[in-house]
Amino acid sequence: MRAEQGCARRGRCQSAWTTAIAWLVLVATFAAQGSAQANPPAQHPVPPPRKGAVSLGHNGAVLTAAFSPDGKLLLTGSEDRTAVLWDLRQGLPRITFQGHQGAVVAVAFGPQGCRALTGSADATVLLWDIKRGKPLLKFRKHRAPISSLALSPDGRQVLSASEDGKIILWETRTGQTLHTLQHKPKIVFVSFTPRGPRALASLAPDNLLDLVDVRTGQVIRTFWAQGEKAITCAALSANGRWILAGGTSGKLFLWNAQTGRLAHKLQIGHGGVCSAAFSPRGRWVLVGTLYGPAVLLETQSGKRLATFRKHRGPVCSVAFAPRGLLMFLGCRDLRSSVWDIHTGKLVHILERPLVKLDIHSVRFSSGGKKVFMRIRDGTAVCWNAQDGKLLQNFPFPTDHEHATVGAFSPQARWVMTKFVNKIAVWETSTGKKVFSFQHPEKKSVCTRAVFSPDDRQLAAHFLINGQKVEIFCWEFLQRKRLHRWVFDTSELSRTAMTFGPNGLWFELAERVVLLDVSSGKRLRALQPTFGGALALIPTRRGDRLLVGNYKGAQLWDTKSGKLLRTFGQNVRAVAMSSEGSKVLTASHDSAQLWDAQTGKVLRRFAGHLGGIKTLALSPDGTLVLTVGEDGAWLWEANTGRRLLRWFPLPGKNWIAMTEQGYFIGSPNAMPRISHRDLHTGELIPWEQSLQYYQPTLVAKALE
After folding, report:
1. Residue 670 to residue 353: CA distance in whole angstroms
2. What is the Cα–Cα distance from 21 to 312, expressed in whole angstroms?
3. N or C: which end of the chain has fewer CB within 10 A?
């Protein structure tokens, strides 16, 4: 059976990042590290800025999905708070919808494919215009996460259900409430059937499933999942003939909705059932499980037709295309897939066009002209904050292939690597190893290591068999050990540790203590109002100490031991200028620059998809660097202007792009990037996008 070939409407999609003017989207996997080097493209005459779209895919697990009526588009919702519209002809994301404050847990298309619904854990529902990429209405009357959504066949009504037990029927045009039904059990599924709006509600702990008429509130029939521990998902076929329920024990129940008779009770797997869906005519059932396999069943016979093992994690969402020719699997491994149901062949892997950027730490050089980043695979890079060019790519250390880069020294002369209980220090300019240490205990693990401000000393923190902690301090160039401290693990909150001008700051028993590295004495202690510091940052003179925590950031006077000020809440990362005049904090979706004296917010930096993971502030406080899974962003601190986006890529490749759309990058990256024109939704060929290769304009933007 072949899909009907219709004329697709090409809508104008607007990016969630509305200030961006042009975007480079990767359209193929990057070449391996040993691929041949291409010649860099020549610089072309300056083209006008082109309005483009940010298309990065999801940063979190895909929790829900729906096909467009023509089966050519796919809308997915994720725990990263976004919904992404995918073009199934190319297997690429077309547009990202941002507007929810919680995970997107339910999505649905309108009958014409021009509108879509997204429901979130923030208890809101948004109606979107697909062509313009803008929200039309926001439905707010639920008080708990949304569990299910549906649009009526004529597109005039919206049906939403929430974990607060409330089902609401809305008018699409005005957003007014037409009908509200309060049902005590948890609502797990709502749908428009030929007989009207219906809902399925589970009754724990009896594992009963009610079929409810939404307009009247009448329970039409009750179904019992006998022998199941707890119902985790349920679905009603579009024709209203079949009902299914899956549970934590891996059982799947199929009932005849009209007679209430149990047709099949099947054991799908050892893990629980995460998701399930009927094909449009109810002929097939697609089931996603906790441990990865997805199973295709025939509804009438209960026969297992196929098992899909492409994913390694829980399959959180499944869906059928309207004509039943394609099916979707969404998984927590951040990879989603589209399959041909008749041939069993994989059609698309829908994953982020960029590799998942897991950058552990970033820092500016002492002069603020260079940026050092430690990346997930254990490598590190150094790039120029004045022209965006990659200066150095630090490879894996030569003593062990699985060692990772732990830290750069403040003046970037040295880089430390670690592997289990072994650490080493390397000269960044030559790659020569100058120091190494291996703890004698086989069950020891190096959890943290830091350099002193003068690049002469190194301190390392080792966890011994989970029972005690040892901290060593060396003059590493002379291979001289200065001191060794031993602590019981009950005294330790976290592993926050840093050098200051006067010694080593270390968190101990919910206090922050200053240790003298030569004598080993405790010089002074601070008592934060909360324990568990994620960062300790001293000023250049050592008179101030910033203690970062998930609840906030505290600035302390180290001499008097007084708390001076607290900045922000739910802090994920902190930084401070060298003189202590500015403090930088990051929450999930934005960063704030504070005046340390007044405690006022000077500037806010927002726009990362999936949130900010780490950040840095240049020593003079003029540049801000924020890092998410969509790259590293360089900002001007005083104005909040976005200067550059920088992406480290596999095989020593990289790309840097200004907000105006002009870019530079490594030679092997160039043939594999394209511009996407926002007005037509089309990708511009590589030859045409070469005109945006403008190294001079990139450097000028950073002046």
Report:
1. 15
2. 37
3. C
What token pair was written down for 391?
């200066």
**Count of CB atoms within 10 A of residue 280's CB?**
16
Q: Are 322 and 277 in contact (CB under 8 A)?
A: no
Among 87, 144, 151, smallest CA distance to 120 is for: 144
Cβ contacts of 200 within 8 Å, gap of 6 or more:
187, 188, 189, 190, 209, 210, 211, 212, 234, 235, 236, 243, 245
Would you state the structure tokens that stand for residue 488, as one six-digit string? 């019981």
The pLDDT score that the predictor gives to residue 518 is: 83
CA atoms of 175 and 178, how far apart (whole Å): 9
Q: 381: closest CA among 403, 411, 401, 361?
A: 361
| Token pair 């708990």: residue | 144
Tell me how far apart the alpha carbons of residues 231 and 248 are, in angstroms, rounded to a whole number.
7
Q: Which of 381, 235, 249, 230 minimizes the C-alpha distance to 317?
A: 235
Dihedral-angle region of residue 98 (phi above 0 means left; psi in -120 to 50 means alpha; beta otherwise): beta
Residues in Cβ contact with 601 at an 8 Å cutoff, skipping those fewer than 6 apart:
592, 593, 594
Task: Tell me how far apart the alpha carbons of residues 179 and 174 are, in angstroms, rounded to a whole number.
Answer: 14
Q: Reduced to 3 DSSP states, what percent helix, strand and coil does the chain have, rounded to the nearest 5?
A: 5, 50, 45
- Which token pair is 218? 């009448």
pTM (2 decimals)?
0.58
Q: What pLDDT is attached to residue 640?
A: 92
Which region holds residue 532: left if phi is over 0, alpha if psi is between -120 and 50, else beta?
A: left
Instruction: List, for residues 531-571, the tens digit of each pLDDT value.
Output: 667 788 999 888 999 988 777 899 999 988 899 999 988 78
Please check whether residue 364 is in contact with residue 343, taking contact to mean a CB–CB distance below 8 angstroms: no
What DSSP character marks residue 387?
T
467-489 burial, b if ≥16 CB within 10 A, otherwise e? Answer: ebbbbbbbebeeeeebbebeeee
Q: Is the dihedral of CA 302, 304, 308, 313 positive or negative?
A: positive
Which tokens hold the place of 436? Answer: 């190494």
Q: Mean pLDDT score of the chain, rounded to an integer?
A: 80
Identify the pLDDT of residue 451: 93
From residue 592, how far is each of 247, 632, 645 by CA, in Å? Answer: 44, 16, 18
Strands 146-151 and 134-139: unpaired
How many Cα neighbours within 13 Å face the side chain of 324?
16
The answer for residues whose C-beta is within 8 angstroms of residue 407's C-beta and 6 or more apart is: 361, 374, 415, 416, 449, 450, 451
Torsion of CA 242, 243, 248, 252, to 10 degrees: -20
Mean pLDDT of 101-107: 90
Burial bucket for residue 681 (CB in 10 Å: 0-12, 13-18, 19+): middle
